[in-house]
């Protein structure tokens, strides 16, 4: 991947490696080889990538630069370089360093513009501006003194969020010592990442609130990482505190998740009447609970399923005549499936046999 050779050398080394490892028929190796112009340095050499090799590195660099810029904005003060020191100083306290530099550039460009016309009424003043050595170009800036708002025809503030040089000219004419709040976009100020929204106790959290809180915490952790990575001692201390805080927040998260689940179950089952929970009684559960069922046992043959009256091993006289069993069969039940003999019926059969003989 990072070999210093050219394309021909890469092809030679690649085929030797694949043949040596026996991966000629491997599907993944074939797909990677087909994309070699996207990852092999032999094919990428000569293209400018700014030192980046992966998107992860690009994201880490952006976060590092953001943390560094935020640190410089909060812990340093830019030097004032214009004659409008009061207005410039106010911009330095409001904007971040990068945003302030852009606004100061507009302040310097304001020296090329001057007022060539004014239309005033009871609620608004409209200034017409022209540029040095460009008399045919005109811009109109509307100023409302009651609510202190500025609006320029160039619409730079609406597009970028930084007051234009035409607005700065009107600020000088109106002797404004501070930039009007209507001309300050919070996105470019030092308070852009400060989460100041107050959430009432009875307000239901939604995905947007969670997203805002997540972004605010991510910004704070970015700044914490920048400061804590300065020395080994601060790194170890921050690491231990983060681990402790992570354990606490994880426990709180699981608790809140359990509470939400209980509340959801209660809400869905409010109007449902269900069977009461079965409670196990104390003591011996008894035969019924133990599912112990004993069948009736015959006292003659000791088998289960019949009594002595219907025992199939009923006593038959030893001196019975040959026709005894025939007569016995005639007096038995017609049901062939009945395997038991009634003792009363057997006695009647015996009496009939005696009378017969």
Automatic annotation (TrEMBL):
It comes from Vitis vinifera (Grape). GO terms for biological process: regulation of DNA-templated transcription. GO terms for molecular function: nucleic acid binding; zinc ion binding. The gene is FRS5_121. Its main location: nucleus. This is Protein FAR1-RELATED SEQUENCE. The keyword rRNA processing does not apply. It comes from the Eukaryota. Residues 296-313 form the CCHC-type domain. InterPro entries: FHY3/FAR1, Znf_CCHC, Znf_CCHC_sf, Znf_PMZ, Znf_SWIM. It holds the Pfam family SWIM. One of its GO terms (cellular component) is nucleus. Belongs to the FHY3/FAR1 family. Putative transcription activator involved in regulating light control of development. PANTHER family: PROTEIN FAR1-RELATED SEQUENCE (PTHR31669:SF302), PROTEIN FAR1-RELATED SEQUENCE 10-RELATED (PTHR31669). Residues 137-175 form the SWIM-type domain. Keywords: Metal-binding, Nucleus, Zinc, Zinc-finger.
């Amino acid at each position: 991947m990072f070999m210093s050779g050219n394309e021909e050398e890469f092809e030679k080394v690649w085929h030797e490696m694949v043949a040596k490892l026996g991966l000629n028929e491997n599907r993944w190796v074939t797909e990677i080889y087909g994309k070699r112009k996207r990852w092999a340095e032999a094919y990428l050499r000569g293209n400018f990538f700014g030192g980046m090799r992966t998107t992860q590195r690009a994201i880490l660099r952006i976060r590092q630069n953001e943390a560094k810029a935020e640190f410089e904005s909060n812990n340093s003060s830019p030097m004032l370089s214009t004659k409008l020191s009061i207005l410039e100083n106010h911009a330095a306290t409001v904007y971040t360093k990068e945003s302030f530099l852009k606004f100061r550039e507009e302040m310097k460009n304001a020296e090329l513009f001057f007022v060539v016309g004014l239309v005033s009424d009871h609620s608004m003043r409209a200034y017409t501006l022209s540029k040095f050595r460009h008399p045919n170009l005109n811009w109109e800036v509307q100023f409302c003194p009651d609510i202190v708002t500025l609006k320029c025809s160039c619409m730079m503030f609406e597009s970028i969020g930084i007051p234009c040089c035409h607005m700065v000219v009107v600020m000088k004419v109106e002797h404004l010592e501070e930039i009007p709040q209507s001309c300050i976009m919070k996105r470019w100020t030092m308070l852009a990442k400060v989460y100041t929204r107050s959430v009432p106790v009875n307000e239901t959290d939604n995905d947007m609130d969670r997203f805002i809180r997540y972004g605010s915490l991510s910004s704070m952790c970015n700044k914490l990482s920048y400061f804590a990575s300065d020395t080994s001692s601060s790194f170890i201390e921050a690491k231990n505190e983060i681990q402790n805080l992570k354990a606490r927040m994880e426990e709180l998260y699981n608790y809140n998740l359990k509470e939400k689940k209980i509340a959801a179950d209660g809400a869905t089952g409010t109007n449902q009447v269900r069977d009461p929970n079965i409670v196990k009684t104390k003591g011996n559960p008894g035969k019924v609970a133990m599912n112990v069922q004993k069948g009736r046992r015959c006292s003659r043959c000791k088998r289960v399923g019949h009594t002595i009256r219907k025992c199939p091993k009923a006593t038959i006289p030893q001196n019975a005549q040959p026709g005894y069993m025939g007569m016995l069969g005639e007096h038995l039940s017609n049901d062939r499936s009945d395997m038991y003999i009634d003792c009363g019926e057997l006695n009647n059969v015996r009496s009939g046999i005696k009378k017969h003989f």
